[in-house]
């Protein structure tokens, strides 16, 4: 049931070959530049972890005009990121205004594969770095841009393939370097958590997240009906981007921690990334278990029991033992013990429920389970 995601990283060095950061490069299929960028962002922050990809260095992430205009605000902090605007983007007032606001928020901007034109002048006023392809244009192209831009922005020579080119560009005034001479892109692979097509890849329900009248309860319903999405958000909350002081036990806690606005944008990014929708067969099971458990425990344990039921398919989602499937998730002991060892009151109920799915017996459990099946079907129809 699981799928892997791969992101390549290529180091960016200064003239003394000291590491400044890594450009994160998309690997795999994507229908558009926006989808590729979304897959890199989601993979870096949720599936792999930004700290594993870049450590304490900067992450250079390719972005397009459309993505910057669609995802506002960006759902990550500016201190670790350089936004690398891809070439051939439409430069208009909407883009320039967005870039000015991003600069005011603390984001840095790099211009990728840059070729000077009068139309690009407004971008140069906002850019920290300009990347010049010295393989495509040659040293004359590199010299031309050095003469134009030296002292105005920090020049980065990309696709440097030998020592002679490195030395020549350094002499021209280039401060940063990237290319095969230093290191080829290195692939980093991790298991990708699949998200349901009901509220994942296409995410018709996510259209509601952009509506002003979409309240917290509705957001929680959208997230809580998809175990894959819930897992990814929990993993995100345990990343360096969102250091947690206390374990997050329920989906409700996760939503409170992220906040409505930030959660909306992360889910929209998940949708744009067109995450593989292969967990659909597990959705009814997860929802039915979650509903059943929440109905059989005292009210104060309802949210915790619902989360246990929703995450009870994590091992099947990732095709690995439950203890490994929960690695990296900021779960409390009650939830973790219930899922891994069936310990505690909720864990004991989960064990009974899984036995009931194979051999129905207990009347009270059977009644709650039958009601939960009807509820889960109605919920999925409502979100389709």
- Give the second-level CATH assignment, the architecture of the largest domain: Alpha-Beta Barrel
Please state how the strands of the largest beta sheet are arranged side by side.
1-2-3-4-5-6-7-8
| Helix-strand makeup class | alpha/beta
How much helicity do the residues have? 40-55%
Q: What is the CATH superfamily classification of the largest domain?
A: EAL domain
State the distance separating the first and last CA atoms. 22 Å
Contiguous uncertain segments of 5+ residues: 197-207, 274-278
Shape: elongated
Rg measurement, Å: 24 Å
Beta-strand content estimate: 5-15%
Largest sheet: 8 strands, mixed, barrel
Strand runs, count: 9
Mean pLDDT, as a whole number?
82
The H-and-E topology, N to C, reads as EEHHEHEHEHEHEHEEHHHHHHHHHHH
Structurally, the number of domains stands at 2
Task: State the helix count.
Answer: 18
Q: How would the blueprint of this fold be written?
A:
Blueprint (H helix, E strand, L loop, with lengths): L2 E12 L4 E8 L6 H16 L1 H5 L3 E6 L1 H6 L10 E5 L7 H13 L2 E4 L9 H4 L4 E5 H16 L4 E5 L4 H10 L3 E3 L7 E7 L23 H9 L2 H11 L13 H8 L1 H13 L10 H14 L5 H10 L2 H5 L3 H4 L7 H9 L2 H15 L4 H21 L1
Parallel strand pairs: 2-3, 3-4, 4-5, 5-6, 6-7, 7-8
Antiparallel strand pairs: 1-2, 1-8, 1-9
Helix pairs in contact: 1-11, 6-7, 9-10, 12-13, 12-17, 12-18, 13-16, 16-17
